[in-house]
């Protein structure tokens, strides 16, 4: 029951984040679809974590080099996702309003991804760690 409610809440927040992203692209005033390239960052964001889970040792150590490297790469991906629309707005490829909508969408999507790992990454009986 609790996992189902969390999954519904995460999917709802993901839909809101993608709505912000689409509004930044598809509104007639903006009308440029360059910000959709941040979707690439959404897809590759969890990959370092999955690799670190597979490669890292199973001990409950407070820190490991593999996990820290995964945090580093994930941070670089997230910062790049926030930097891309700012650079696109700076070179006037998109308008600043579209940049604001994409940044709002980025914040919601990355908080959703974080929430997914906080809710389903605990390793209890209902987990997504099998993949």
From TrEMBL:
Keyword Transmembrane helix attributed: yes
Keyword Chaperone listed: no
GO biological process assignments: late endosome to vacuole transport via multivesicular body sorting pathway; negative regulation of growth hormone receptor signaling pathway
Keywords: Endosome, Golgi apparatus, Membrane, Transmembrane, Transmembrane helix
Pfam families the record matches: Vps55 (PF04133)
Ranges in coiled-coil conformation: none
Main location class: membrane
Annotated localization: Endosome membrane; Golgi apparatus membrane
Annotated Gene Ontology cellular component terms: endosome membrane; Golgi membrane
Membrane-crossing residue ranges in chain numbering: 33-51, 71-88, 94-120
Family assignment from sequence similarity: Belongs to the OB-RGRP/VPS55 family.
Protein name according to UniProt: Leptin receptor gene-related protein
Biological source species: Tychaedon coryphoeus (Karoo scrub-robin)
Lineage: Eukaryota, Metazoa, Chordata, Craniata, Vertebrata
GN (gene name): Leprot
